Amino acid sequence: HEAVQPKCLYKGESKAVLKATYDVSSFSFFQRSSCYFFLQGILIVECSAKDSQTSVEQEYLCYVFVRNDSLAEVVIADREHPSWESFTLLEKVLDEFSKQVHRIDWPVGSPYTIQYTGLDSHLSRHQNPQEADSMTKVNIILHNTMQSLLARGGKLNDLVSKSEVLGIQLKVFYKMARI
């Protein structure tokens, strides 16, 4: 999986303002070009209601979470990155940010004045969901289990339908045999 790029924002009355980002100097041109998608993410934050989660699909996927307290998070991820993982990342980052940065700094601070470095560690951990923390690994296992259960459930539904058809055919055969 490639680009997972989290950014913290504060949703003000009229606009969303960047509060924390990470160093992109080591990123390739391709990864840096996703900044355009991040600008779209800011617009989505500005249009989103508080306490909402949104995802928008274009070349990349843009995941947005706006909390009731006006903190917002935007994650840009490639199509292969699981959506549930991105929303988990949104929640983790905002929880951590709100614990490390004083609430009075949210509306007025900037990436230069707010000392929050958690995005770098989250970025490196979530580039590949298989290498994420133990809770995420549990989520991955649960997700895979649910997918196989759903697949198995579909097969069971097929078997039930086929047995119902066979039951009907058996009744018709029985009636024909009695005649």
From TrEMBL:
The keyword Protein transport applies. Residues 127-179 form the V-SNARE coiled-coil homology domain. One of its GO terms (molecular function) is SNAP receptor activity. SMART domains: Longin (SM01270). It comes from the Eukaryota. It is found in: Endomembrane system. Keywords: Coiled coil, Lipoprotein, Membrane, Methylation, Palmitate, Prenylation, Protein transport, Transport. It is a lipid-anchor. InterPro entries: Longin-like_dom_sf, Longin_dom, V_SNARE_CC. GO terms for cellular component: Golgi apparatus. Belongs to the synaptobrevin family. PANTHER family: SYNAPTOBREVIN HOMOLOG YKT6 (PTHR45806:SF1). This is Longin domain-containing protein. It comes from Bos indicus x Bos taurus. The lineage of its organism: Eukaryota, Metazoa, Chordata, Craniata, Vertebrata.
